[in-house]
Design goal:
With 267 residues, this protein is mostly helical. It contains 13 helices and no strands. The longest helix has 32 residues. The protein is globular and about 55 Å long. Catalyzes the dephosphorylation of undecaprenyl diphosphate (UPP). Confers resistance to bacitracin. It is a multi-pass membrane protein.
Length: 267
């Protein structure tokens, strides 16, 4: 295999492992790409391979998604849940389009910022995880629309790489009254329109710079992200219900600190 092909496979595995846990998959991809010397046209690789992780979630939740769709015509609760996901998605859709150029050309190209955000996010996650607050909501389907909208605005913080889309939505939901399992589950469902929208828009914006080699690397990363994403989604809910998010917080802090040290050393 060519060196770039191997790196694409490794980054695909990292995407699948980190997309749905609150450690910032994009931050990990950008830092690894920086240290491994991997460049993608328009930084499209880091966004487009997320489709693999998205398909992982669709596969794991296919039965539940189908059931919600079937219930929607006659069940107000199902319609409210769909509306909550769409309402939570709207802020990212608007801000993502308006800030796309700045995100790609400035934020994605600042590894020091990514490392700092990993560390700060880790400490915030530790603090939220240890708060002794009785949850109000035990099911993602029960989140009211105003709460969903607030989670959607909080998700927009993840446009800064290193923050973590899942981390922002989970922390936001926890602070607004969700328990640990329902916070993760709402993050899963919100990922579907968010990641699909990011994929479609980025593909449109970069359609002229993607050559055969770039598309090949994206396809490899996509496959590995899909496989590892399925494993993570199946495992995560049970883990966080029992043990919370401290493991991921410490991982963020360690990875961010190591990255800062490496960057300070000129790597």
């Amino acid at each position: 295999m060519e060196p770039n092909t191997i790196v694409a496979a490794v980054l695909g595995i990292v995407e699948g492992l980190t997309e749905f846990i609150p450690v910032s998959s994009t931050g990990h991809l950008l830092l690894m790409g920086h240290f491994l010397g991997f460049e993608s046209p328009g930084r499209s690789f880091e966004v487009l391979i997320q489709l693999g992780a998205l398909l992982a979630i669709l596969g794991v939740y296919a039965a539940r998604i189908t059931q919600v769709a079937r219930d929607a015509p006659h069940d107000p609760a199902a319609r409210r849940f769909i509306a909550a996901i769409l309402v939570a998605f709207l802020p990212a859709a608007v801000i993502g389009v308006l800030a796309h150029g700045f995100i790609k050309t400035v934020l994605f190209e600042t590894p020091m910022l990514i490392a700092v955000m990993l560390i700060l996010g880790g400490f915030i996650l530790l603090w939220v995880d240890r708060r002794a607050v009785a949850p109000v909501y035990a099911r993602a389907e029960d989140f009211p629309l105003p709460m969903a909208l607030k989670v959607g605005f909080i998700q927009c913080l993840a446009m800064i790489p290193g923050v973590s889309r899942s981390g922002a939505t989970i922390v936001g939901a926890l602070m607004l009254g969700a328990d640990k399992r329902s916070a993760a589950e709402f993050s899963f469902f919100l990922a579907m329109p968010t990641m699909l929208g990011a994929f479609a828009y980025d593909l449109f914006k970069n359609r002229d710079v993607l050559d055969g080699a770039a598309i090949g690397n994206i396809a490899i990363g996509f496959v590995f992200a899909l496989i590892t994403g399925v494993v993570v989604v199946r495992w995560l809910l049970g883990y966080v219900s029992r043990r919370g998010y401290a493991l991921f917080a410490w991982w963020r802090i360690i990875v961010g600190t190591l990255a800062l040290l490496a960057l300070s050393a000129g790597m």
